[in-house]
Amino acid sequence: MKNSESVENEGLLVRRIKNGTVIDHISPGEALNVVKILGITGTTQEALSIATNVPSRNMGKKDIVKLNNRELSKEEVNRIALISPKATINIIRNFKVFEKKGVETPTLIEGVVRCPNPGCISNTHEPIRSRFSVKGNGLHCIYCDWVITGDLPSHII
Amino acid sequence: MRHIISIGDFDREWIDSLLDHADRIDGKQYDSHTLEGKILAVLFFEPSTRTRLSFESAIARLGGTSLTVGSVEACSIAKGETLADTIRVVSGYADAIVIRHPKEGAARLAAEFSTVPVINAGDGAGQHPSQTLLDLYTIRQSMPIDGIDIALIGDLRYGRTAHSLASALSLYNARLHTLCPKGLELPETLSSRLAEQGMEIIGHEDIADVIPAVDVLYVTRVQRERFPDSASYFNVASSYRITPELLADAKKHLIVLHPLPRVDEIDPRVDEMPHAKYFEQSRNGVPVRMAMLMQVMQ
User: Fold this and answer.
1) Does ipTM come in above 0.85?
2) Which residues of A touch B109 (CB under 8 A)?
3) CA of B225 to nearest chain A CA: how many angstroms apart?
4) Strands ordered across the beta sheet of A147-148
5) What pTM was computed for the model?
6) Which of B6, B82, B104 lies nearest to residue A119, judging by beta carbons?
7) Residue ranges per domain, chain B?
């Protein structure tokens, strides 16, 4: 929390949260995509704070996302690695950092990204979720082997 | 339970062992009661002659029987049933399922919902592993597969037989020569994966340059519907047509393969030349598919 705290102490942006998750050190400009990949939409009932292009000693600039009253699961945390592999996760309980962790690139993601191949069975009304294995050169569709190599956010469901 | 969905799921040892088995079957070294009492469901949601008949022939020669649906119009898919539900139901009626479907990944989905082994007999522009195995088997009858120069000619973008074969040949250090109409090149994801696996891919523009350089010509059909009008189709199709005159420059041991049906790609006069192996290739579908059925159903 030090970096984000220091940013706040300089009079910036968002208040501390009592309970929830702070996603810090997000690559600048990617905060909205992080929110998107977590499946958080405008209908959320909880307070959500987003700060972009915040000055950072280590990164120059960074984004921060604070989610009130929601602790991210390991699977959710690791999804963030696809967009911002250097992000750090702080689980907050009663204003204190209860747990701090980095993100790990997952080996498989389910129901997060839509296959761009219009001929893929995962784009039909079959009772399946999209599934991609994460490899060095991109995301590989388990069904049709299509590879997503760039612009991941535009494929998020 | 073993499924056969994509040739990429298997290593060279598995492929070689299956081809050896097919070879023994071809030499009549098999028990015709091996799959007696077993039932194969043949679910084809796209037209097929060779693949479907050779699977039915394969199960019959091993003493089993097959169940088929007449056409897509006559089955429950036409009523809006999902493929997942169809597979759940059919896997209760049979000991294995062979499926052809227009959507890529359909066989992978079928394997997830099936309680019996699934064999992919072609899924959209995706994979066609049984065709690849019989293609390799046919090449092996004429020459060792290792290190061959092979030309893929025709529709390399949508031609699933070309995709499957190219993937398998990367296990055999083959060098790939490609010749195709503009816009019908190998998909970028496939060609970059093959290159990563160390396969050399050489693009050509003139068929006369390709023929003297290769050991195998693998010709595929260019579908008329890929072109805006008949004139441009005929223009392209005629530029790739294999003729006895072109084959005059070929290596003596060159073989010509085609997954069939052919339309205009190979001059019928080539049929009588020793290079022509496409009808043997088609016949090889039976022993290779017998070996596949024994692999998953025994």
Assistant:
1) yes
2) 121, 126, 128, 143
3) 17
4) A108-110, A131-135, A138-141, A147-148
5) 0.89
6) B104
7) 7-127+284-297, 129-282
